Amino acid sequence: QLEEAAEHYEAFYRLTLGRKWTDETGRTHNSLACEDLWRIYTLLADKMLENKEHQQAIKSLIKAFQMAKEGGDKKMEGASAYRLGLAYLSAGLPEKAISTLSTYMKIVEELNDIVGLGQAYEAIAKSLQSQGKIFESIQYLEKFIEIAKSNNLCESLIEACTYLGEIFNIT
């Protein structure tokens, strides 16, 4: 059913290209189409990841990221970059993960999203660790710890310290 929904939203999206149609709130129909396609592509990717279809999920998440970017919603764009980065990491592509997660990091910095910044640091640390770059990984985890401490994010602090402990235990 998601594939069929995607086809309908893609048709709606094509109709909105180059048009200034707006809804009653003033949002363009194109941005609404982008948001709907972002949601559908993300849901499709979730199903693919459940089935360990990493490459197909990545293709769907790339489409979701493009829709978020075109739709102009920075929060949605950041969420897409984060999910795409994690998908690259789970597919064994840490270089692409780091690049995409760095994009996510820039977006959450623009949005002053402290929790998102912590997530970015943690995910980049995991990507670096998977490449054997332990020192760099630790540096990102230390940044994550600082953010968690200075913003009283207790669960994040526990998570960061636990992960840091695991790295030290391995080395």
TrEMBL record:
Which keywords has UniProt assigned to this entry?
Answer: Cytoplasm, Repeat, TPR repeat
GO BP, one annotated term: cilium movement
Annotated Gene Ontology cellular components are: cytoplasm; sperm flagellum
Keyword flag Transferase: no
Gene3D superfamilies registered for this protein in UniProt: Tetratricopeptide repeat domain
* Entry keyword Repeat: yes
What the entry lists under InterPro entries is as follows: Bac_ResReg_Asp_Phosphatase, TPR-like_helical_dom_sf
**Which cell locations does it reside in?**
Cytoplasm
Q: What is its main location?
A: cytoplasm
> Function of this protein?
Axonemal protein which is implicated in axonemal and/or peri-axonemal structure assembly and regulates flagellum assembly and beating and therefore sperm motility.
> How is this protein named in the record?
Tetratricopeptide repeat protein 29
Native organism: Pleurodeles waltl (Iberian ribbed newt)
Q: What is the lineage of its organism?
A: Eukaryota, Metazoa, Chordata, Craniata, Vertebrata
